[in-house]
Amino acid sequence: MKYRDLADKIFERGKDKFEDMEAYIEKTKEIEISVFNGEINRYNISDTEGLSLRGIGNNKMGYSYTEKLDESSIDMLVDEAYENRKYIDSLEKELIFSGSDKYEELDNFNKSLKQTPLEDKIELVKALEKEAFKLDSRITAVSYCMYDEIENSRYLMNTKGLDLKESINLAYLLIMVVAKEGEDTKTGSSYIISRDFKDFDYKKMAKEAVDEAISLLGAESIKSKEYPVVFRNDVFTDILGAFQSIFNAESVQKGLSLLKDRIDEPVANKNFTLVDDPFVKEGFSSISFDGEGTATKRKKIIDKGVLKTYLYNWKTALKDGVESTGNGYRSSYKASISTSATNLFVEKGNKTLEEILETIDNGIMIIDVQGLHSGVNPVSGDYSLSAYGYEIENGKIKRPVNQITIAGNFFETLMDIEEIGEDLRFNSSGVGSPSIKVKKLAVSGE
């Protein structure tokens, strides 16, 4: 049965119970391959699909969902959504969106990635592990060597005539190696995310991971004090991702963000611009419509240090008397509508990482942090994270550093940004950043 036919039958069945209805269908295929000591230790191909129904009546929204996409689910979907609507106490207004005037046409599905033989993908992972062991005798283990490929198609139809569909695919290749010298053990990692199988250069990845692990051997702590700090691109990306909820209107409205009432005020250094762009070429969360069917658009959340907008879905937008910014988000067909950025990133500067390091007489470059789930408080902005990296002296890497803790406040860190690199890089969550230098940060070590 075609999805539109199924949606129309659901709408016909529910027309006496709801003023408006919406059907959202999601299909996902995932390929997981991992290798350990030359042998495949995980090989999994999964196909999932599901449908969720939203129905509105008396300004109350009811939800239901099913994994069974046929007519036998229609009665259950309508009846459960109707029952759920009865128990909504919230007085906040919600709506089923009628559609935007225009939607961008995006090409987010690479057929050649899908058509690349599975044997080639398996051989890629095996070659990556083998290359890492070959590069240096001090590599004693490859703790992770994995390939993950996802295809996702989504369809959104409603009783207001909206009929949208979109498909994306991408793949993720990761390696983590262990280097050992005497009793000293260190790890290094590398990853690539792409829609083009040709981008997976296993030799480059293996060298990057091995070089990082070897460079950290012999690491020691450092004297506790405030240092100028350079966050490598992937590290600042992870920290930004941990704090991204502060830009959501829902967090602001609930008093869970210190950005409340700060629109058009400086919240970061004037060299800092934060963008949400659903169309950026390097991003991996590019979409033309959000989870409510609103056309997505590029927006500067922070423009040259000044806060310009929050991110809205329709529920939070109606509360503030504005329009949705196209950031209604569904983590899956089972989930209710929340808010999220698409491709959230710091606009890149024009300096290389090496040029940024040259501006430091004595400081630290952070290449990994741990404890993002427990050491970050998005409400206050405070963070305290165990970290490791390198001591920088006279603009050059002097030695590896570990057993340190960095502590600061995210809002203060944004104001203290001095340099922004050109090496913008995204992670698998659609968050990206170049390397960033901060004027000072408290470092606890010896």
Label this structure with key terms.
single chain, 446 residues, alpha+beta, 6-stranded antiparallel sheet, 6-stranded mixed sheet, 10 helices, 20 strands, 38% strand
Describe this structure in words.
Helix content is 22%, strand content 38%. By secondary structure, it is of the alpha+beta class. The chain has 10 helices and 20 strands. The chain is globular and about 75 Å long. It has a 6-stranded antiparallel beta sheet with strand order 3-2-1-4-5-6. The chain has a 6-stranded mixed beta sheet with strand order 10-9-8-13-19-18, with helices on one face. It starts with a helix and ends with a strand. It has helices at residues 3-14, 74-86, 111-115, 118-135, 202-215, 233-243, 249-253, 314-320, 353-357, 410-415, and strands at 20-36, 39-57, 60-66, 139-158, 163-181, 184-194, 225-231, 274-276, 299-303, 306-307, 328-329, 338-339, 344-346, 362-370, 382-393, 396-409, 417-420, 425-426, 431-433, 436-444. Helix 1 packs across helix 2 and helix 4 packs parallel to helix 5.
